[in-house]
Each structure stands twice: as structure tokens, then as C-alpha cells.
Design goal:
This protein is α/β, with parallel strands linked by helices. The protein has a single domain, classed as 3-Layer(aba) Sandwich (Glutaconate Coenzyme A-transferase). It contains seven helices and eight strands. Strands 1, 2, 3, 4, 5, 6, 7 and 8 form an eight-stranded mixed beta sheet that branches. Helix 2 packs parallel to helix 3 and helix 3 packs across helix 4.
Length: 248
């Protein structure tokens, strides 16, 4: 049900609102899933947790269930941690900082491709990484025209939304609504040999648009959430810091 405080302003997409469990049921074992998130910001929280619970249930029945996970960078315990603990990640790229996943990678229980973050999107475009079955992307809202308001990170989200066969969105009302208009999503790039220089010549240049585009036919499910990012608030200044400030 879409609540009164819903950030889904596109009437046509409201019919796709469902639970995290229903959304997770759309992800098959063996599939490749592109998740949003970059260094603990803007990653999906509800669907990965529901997927991890589903994987644990399948393993308890003796059924194999693992997925291949692509992201922008590191994520949070609700994603990497939960899926790794469930034994649900077959392959991971391009970066991981979760301790459970790290131990599994080092023991050879999870395949891992440690590649530079900037190489992921071009390689996905060119098909070197194989097909992308599902994108699970957190956004901070959906406009009346269906445009997606980015969350607290961008990462590889544009590429996931473009390349995935199906898209699952998490609309997180915890994210500040003032994020709208902050982003600059560039749709003018191209693959070699047609790539041209990015037309940024001044610090205040804007070359793209503040929203993601996504074919509404590809959006299979939308989950409304209200969950914080992994990044913690700064600690209060200690005595030494207060002393330095007062003597400055």
C-alpha cells in the first residue's frame, strides 16, 4: 500500500508497490544482480535482507541458491553481510569491505574480481561481464513523469538501469528529499571508438540531468523503505579537539 507520505508520484507505477519478500522472489538462483550503493551510501536495504532470508530457507530445504552480485563499491551489512552470511553470493565485484564476505573470499568460498571501479560500467556495456538479469536500485523518490530521483550515491546505477532485464526499486523516505536536483547524471557518453571528452571545463558546469531514466516496462517491483545508510554520524568532539578549537 502506498502511504500518505509516499514519494512515488507517478500514478502508473504505484501499482507495482509490493513487499520486499515479493520483490526478492523475482530473483532467481544463478542470476546476476546489479545493486546500487557506493561506500555505504544509497544501497538497497530491504530486498537484499529478504533475498538472504529466502536463500537461507532454500538451503535449509537442501536446495542450492546463489547469485552473482555487482555494485558500485562497498555496501552495508544489510546487503553484503546478509547475503554472505546466508552463503548466497557466488561471485562478487568490484569491491568489498564486509568482513564475512572477505573471509569467504580469502577461503576460496566466493569468487571475486578485484577490478578498478571505473572499469565496471564500460565492461558491463560491452558485454564482457555477461548479461545483467536484475537491478536493485535505491532511489529517494519517483517523479510524476516516472523519472527516478537518485539517492545518496550514484555509482553504476545508470548502467544497471540501462542494462538489466528487470528492475526492482527501493524508494527510501529516510533519504533527505533535498537530494532532488543535486545530481548530474550524464547520458552523453559512448563506448570506444565513439567516446568523446566529457564536457566539463568549470567546477560549476552541469552536463547531464538530475534524474535517472528507466523504461517503466522493466520495473518489476517497487518497495517503500525508511532505513538509514551504513555511514554513522560523527562522534562528538573529545576534550583534545575542544581544546584545539578554543585555542585556535
Amino acid at each position: 500500500m502506498v502511504g500518505e507520505a509516499s514519494r512515488i508520484d507517478c500514478v502508473a507505477l504505484r501499482a507495482k508497490v509490493t513487499t520486499a519478500q515479493e520483490a526478492a522472489s523475482l530473483i532467481r538462483s544463478g542470476s546476476t544482480v546489479g545493486m546500487s550503493g557506493f561506500t555505504g551510501s544509497g544501497y538497497p536495504k530491504a530486498v537484499p535482507l529478504a533475498l538472504a532470508a529466502r536463500i537461507e530457507a532454500e538451503h535449509a530445504r537442501g536446495n542450492p541458491f546463489r547469485v552473482r552480485v555487482w555494485t558500485g563499491a562497498s555496501t552495508g551489512p544489510e546487503l553484503d553481510g546478509a547475503l554472505a552470511k546466508a552463503g548466497g553470493i557466488e561471485f562478487r565485484l568490484p569491491y568489498n569491505s564486509d568482513p564475512i564476505a572477505r573471509e569467504m573470499i580469502n577461503r576460496g568460498e566466493m569468487e571475486y574480481f578485484d577490478m578498478h571501479l571505473s572499469q565496471v560500467a564500460p565492461m558491463a556495456w560491452q558485454g564482457f561481464l555477461g548479461p545483467l538479469d536484475t537491478a536493485v536500485v535505491e532511489v529517494s523518490g519517483i517523479r510524476p513523469d516516472g523519472a527516478l530521483i537518485p539517492s545518496s550515491s550514484v555509482g553504476n546505477n545508470k548502467t544497471w538501469l540501462d542494462r538489466a532485464s528487470q528492475v526492482i526499486l527501493e524508494v527510501n523516505s529516510w533519504q533527505n528529499s533535498a537530494l532532488e536536483g543535486m545530481h548530474d547524471i550524464y547520458y552523453g557518453t559512448a563506448l570506444p571508438p565513439h567516446r568523446v571528452p566529457i564536457p566539463l571545463v568549470r567546477p560549476d558546469d552541469r552536463i547531464g540531468e538530475p534524474y535517472f531514466r528507466c523504461d517503466p516496462e522493466k520495473i518489476a517491483a517497487i518497495v517503500e523503505t525508511n532505513a538509514p545508510d551504513r555511514n554513522l554520524p560523527f562522534n562528538a568532539p573529545d576534550e583534545k579537539a575542544r581544546h584545539r578549537r578554543s585555542s585556535a
